[in-house]
Structures are given as C-alpha cells and as structure tokens.
Amino acid sequence: MILLIQLAVVVLYIVGLWTVFTKAGQPGWAAIIPIYNVYILLKVAGRPGWWLLLFLIPIVNLVIAILVAIDVAKAFGKGVGYGLGLFFLGFIFYPMLGLGADTYRAPAA
After folding, report:
1. CA pair distance 29, 14, nearest whole angstrom
2. What is the pTM of this model?
3. Which residues contact 100 (CB under 8 A, 6 or more apart)?
4. Would you state the pLDDT for residue 109?
5. Lowest CB count within 10 Å: 1, 8, 71, 88, which one?
6. Pick from 96, 103, 106, 107: nearest CA to 17
7. Is the pLDDT of residue 79 over 90?
8. Closest CA to 87 of 101, 67, 107, 60
9. Domain region containing 47
10. Torsion sign over Cα 29, 32, 36, 40
C-alpha cells in the first residue's frame, strides 16, 4: 500500500513538472531525466546552468532549491508562498501550476 502511495506521488510530480516544462517552452520529457530536469528547471527559473553544481553541496542545495522554487513561481506570476509550496509540496503544487491556467512569463535576465 505504501508503495502505491509513493508511486502516485512520483507520478503526480512528473506530470506536474512535465506540464510546467511544456508551458515554459522546454521539452516535457526532460522531467523524467535525472540531473537534466534540474538543469531545465534552472532555465525555467531564469538561473544560470552552473547553479547545478551548487546542488552538490550539502545544506547549500536546500537554499538553492528554495530559491529556484520561488523563481519558478515568480516566472508564472505567483508569489513567494507558492514558491515555498513548490519546494515543500511539489507533488501538489507542480501539477496545480502545470495544469492550471497560469502562463509562463520569462524571468528578466
């Protein structure tokens, strides 16, 4: 039973990330490729690709993940609270963002 719940959470997260990537003009299939999906998420958030290296540093990776989640939320016209929702409850908030009516606004460079 626990395995089915975990599988459902993973599927929800992938569907949400796939649709978010598609809305942002990125390939949706990137959501299922480890490491590459983080790189694409950085592009959606408007952050440089080298930030991927920061995800390898313990503790720093948590701070960077929160900043990226907030930047993704802002790129879709949402606030900091929604970004925190993306970080803490991504399996709920990414599908809401991807399947909702929100449109992607490229972040300022």
Report:
1. 9
2. 0.93
3. none
4. 60
5. 1
6. 96
7. yes
8. 67
9. 2-99
10. positive
Q: Is 108 within a domain? A: no
Q: Considering the domain boundaries, does residue 109 fall inside one?
A: no
Do 20 and 44 form a contact (C-beta atoms < 8 A)?
A: yes
Cα–Cα distance for residue pair 67/24, rounded to 1 Å = 18
Classify residue 29: in a domain, yes or no.
yes
Report yes or no: 66 and 87 within 8 Å, Cβ to Cβ: yes
Q: Are 98 and 16 in contact (CB under 8 A)?
A: yes
| 107 domain residue, yes or no | no
Return the structure tokens found at 13: 């997260």
Q: How many folded domains does the chain comprise? A: 1
Q: Which DSSP state fits 35?
A: T
Q: What is the pLDDT of residues 1-32, one digit of tens each?
A: 999 999 999 999 999 999 999 999 999 999 99
Cα gap 70→78, rounded to integer Å: 9
Position 11, amino acid: V
